[in-house]
Amino acid sequence: MRQTMLLLAAPLLAVIPAQADTLPQIAIAPIPLVEPVPQEEVPPALPPPPPPSVEKSIEVRAMLDAAMKAGDEGAVNAIVKYAKAADKERAADFESAAKAWKQARKQEAERRIREARFLDLVKGRAEFGGYVSTGNTENIGLTGVVDLKREGLDWRHKLRVHADYQESLGVTTRERYLAAYEPNLKIDDRAYVYGAALFESDRFAGFDARASVSAGAGYTAIKTAALKIDVELGPAFRHTVFTDAPTESQLAARGKLDIDWKLSRGITLSQDASAYVQQANSTITGKTALRARLFGPLSAQMSYAVNYESAPPERRKTTDTISRASLLIDF
Q1: What is the pLDDT of residues 158-186, one digit of tens each?
Q2: DSSP per position, 239-285
Q3: For the chain, what is the domain count?
C-alpha cells in the first residue's frame, strides 16, 4: 500500500521544483521594536524581627545604661539581679558591664579624694530643738547637736558636740554638755581600728566632769544601700570628777553599736548605743531616732534617749530618759 501511494505522488513532486521560480515573492516587513514596559521597583525585603529574647536584652541594656549614667548604684544592682533571672544567656555580660562601671566609679572617687583639700571632704549635720512656756509655769529648754565627719581613703574622722539645757521657774533642771572625737584607721572596706576620746559634764547625774579614752577594733557587719551596722569593742580608761564624791579613775571595757536603716527614700531609722563597763560604775547610753527629710537639706526628727548609770552618787536615779522633736540641717 505504501509503495502504491509513493508511485502516485511522484509526478506531482517533480512538477513543484520546476515551477518554483514562477511563484510570487513575498516581502517580509520588519517588525518594529516595542519599548519595554517600565517595571515598578520592588522595595528590598525587611530583615526579620529579632526574636523576643534579643528584644528583651536590648531593653535591659538600655535600662542598665540609663542607671549607670544617672549614677544610681542601687538601680544598677536591681537591674543586674533582674537580668540574671530574665535573660540568663546574657546575664554575664550585664554583670561584667556593671562591675566595670563600679570599678571606674570607685577609681574616680578615689582620685577626687586624693586631690581634695582637707575641708572639702568634711560633711556635717546640725540639730536644733527647744521649747518655751509661760503663764502658770515658766519653762525653757534648748538642745543643740553638731556632728562633723570627714571620710578619706585611709582615715575617717568623727566629731560631735552636744548641749542640753532646761530651766523651770528660773531654776536650772538640766545641764549636760558633751564633746567626742573618734578617728578610724581603715584596714579594708569593713574592718578598722578606732580611737575615741570623750568629755562630758552632767552635774544633775552627779559628776562635774568625766573623761574617757579608748582604742580597739571596729567592723562594719552589714553594709548595703539600705542598711549599715557598725560594731566596736576595746579597752578604755575613765576619769570622773564627782560633784560630792572623791575623784575616780578606772579601767573599763567599751562597746559601741551604730545602726542606720533607710526605710524609704526619705525616712531613716537610726539606733546608737554605747557601754562602758567597769567595776565601780558602768554607763550605758542609747538613742533611737526616726528622721524624715522635708526638703533640701532640712529634716525633722523624733528621738528617744536613755542614759543609765549602774551606781550613781547618792540621791541620784540610775536612769534618765528624754524624748525630743527637733529640726536637722545637713551641710
Answers
A1: 999 999 999 988 889 889 999 999 999 99
A2: EEEESSS--EEEEEEEEEEEEEEE-SSSEEEEEEEEEEE-SS--EEE
A3: 1
